[in-house]
Amino acid sequence: MAEEKDYHGKQNYVMILGVIGVLLVAMVGVALATTGSTKVLGISALATVQFFVVLGNLMHLKYEPALVKLVAYCSVVFIIIFIFGVMTDTLLVNLDSSANGKIWLKEID
Amino acid sequence: MSDVAIERVPKGRLGVWLLIAGELVIFGGFIACYILTRLEYPEFGSKDAAGHLNIWVGTVNTVILLISNWTMVVAHEAALEKNVAKMKNFMIFTLVLGLVFLGIKLGYEWPHDFSLGHTIASSKAIVGAEPGGEVMKVSLFWSYYFLMTGFHGLHIVVGSLVIFFVMLSCSGGENLHRVELAGAYWHLVELVWVILFPMFYLIK
User: Fold this and answer.
1) In chain B, positions 48-107, which contact chain A (CB-CB < 8 Å)?
2) Domain assignments of chain B as residue spans, ordered by start
3) Which residue of chain A has the CA closest to B202?
4) What are the tens digits of pLDDT across the range A9-68?
5) Considering A44, A62, A80, which residue would you say is the last residue of a domain?
6) Subunit contact B24:A20, Cβ cutoff 8 A
7) Are the Cβ atoms of A87 and B36 closer than 8 angstroms?
């Protein structure tokens, strides 16, 4: 087993906290000031940035060995593939149908 | 990936990251299901669903969780400096903030939702509701909300227990590297909340 060691250097955690705080304020501001797709896209973009700031800096992923990065990013990539893979199945059927679940079956002409 | 690269990563660190990756996939599955349903059901944003949630209470909870993440990294830094007293103090701060987060969630938000008839099953709302109707869709929102915030809250409980036991095991100044691993798990709850908070409270 390899020895435990400090993988990362000295970080300015107050600054990192400040960045996450600013992103939070921006998110709430966008939520209150905008509507529709601007609101959804703006909040989603800010949340994504915040996600990677936490993952990289607080969880120290950017300082971890390649194997750890691979493990972490595989899960994120898997989720993205899952969302877009399933999206076509859900958005192309009518969930409001009263077909009692039969909407999940492909119709054969 | 070569055997050499695998050998260089300590087992504990790799184990914690495998756990975190697994947790991300579980939460990712929930989040994916919610997003896909939300795209189909605009009723999720109505005043009886997401519109009912208080942005400011959610924001206060987010700030509390954020500060608890900061106290945890300070505890880790103290562990690197072998300053056990400081490390223990900041781990206790982290635990207290985690409990405050849970207190607001379980002591204020959820009881308020329950009082209006919203539960994970929302049985009161479903009685007599038309299949595929608006009441049923709003009820589905609450099912998602309680499932995901409940599962997240469960992780805060587990994370608090991990921090508590790591704090006890490191009291003698040994195994201080465990503080970083416990911290990585604690940051996971922040990581998930960063997505749950805008998803439920902000996008209406």
Assistant:
1) 55, 59, 62-63, 66-67, 69-70, 73-74, 77, 80
2) 3-202
3) A31
4) 677 889 999 999 999 999 999 999 998 889 999 999 999 999 999 999 888 888 888 888
5) A62
6) no
7) yes
- In SS3 terms, chain B reads as CCHHHHHHCCHHHHHHHHHHHHHHHHHHHHHHHHHHHHHHCHHHHCCCCHHHCCHHHHHHHHHHHHHHHHHHHHHHHHHHCCCHHHHHHHHHHHHHHHHHHHHHHHHHHHHHHHHCCCCCCCHHHHCCCCCCCHHHHHHHHHHHHHHHHHHHHHHHHHHHHHHHHHHHHCCCCCCCHHHHHHHHHHHHHHHHHHHHHHHHHHCC
Q: Which of A46, A76, A95 sits opposite B24 (nearest CB)?
A: A76
pTM of this structure: 0.86
pLDDT tens for B76-135 read 999 988 999 999 999 999 999 999 999 999 999 999 988 888 888 765 556 566 666 777
Is residue A80 domain-shared with residue A99, that is, in the same domain?
yes
Q: Is the ipTM of this complex over 0.90?
A: no
CATH number for region B3-202? 1.20.120.80
Question: Number of A:B CB contacts under 8 A?
Answer: 143
